[in-house]
Amino acid sequence: MKLYAIFANDKITGTTYKLFNKAIESFENQGYSIDRLNLYEREKEIPFFKHDQKTMENNPFYLENQKRFLDADALLIVFPLYWYSVPGILKTWLDMINAWAYKYEQGMYARPLHKIKKVFIIYAAMQDQQHLDKELHNPVEHQLAETCRFIGINEIYTYLVDSVTKLQATDIEKHLQNINNFCLSCR
Predict the structure, then answer these.
(1) Does the reported pTM lie above 0.90?
(2) What's the pLDDT score for residue 51?
(3) Domains and CATH numbers, the chain
């Protein structure tokens, strides 16, 4: 199994990066082959989606990611919550991959043009889970779940680290163990 692992945070010393690395370690231990992409390391190369297909198909980052995405069996996306959504750089990447991920014919969902069956979403938020779920109805999870379902990925697993700014070292260690268990349970 090949996992395409997407990291969308410019901070590589914080909790989100630790979560990303723990998930990678867990999936490697399960025998996954990992293809990593840190979006911020490539930020100057990422094109904003344009409907002009020729423009997009002449972009090296676009072509490279098309191959990497189409080669994957599963997807891992790790990010911090920004204003109740994904970071802008991740939204740009999601727009870009949608150019080749599906063929829309009719109805609610499109026909997938990829072989990805599962997506693992891990994110960190300053807000507590109760506020995100009950008062806001967790817009980021709905956005990602619907995007994934639209392009034909129906197994969607999410893990939230809430109140991230209040975490103590022992809390982070518990979350890292939970990430390991999360990755193992989603086989």
Answers:
(1) yes
(2) 82
(3) 2-185 (3.40.50.360)
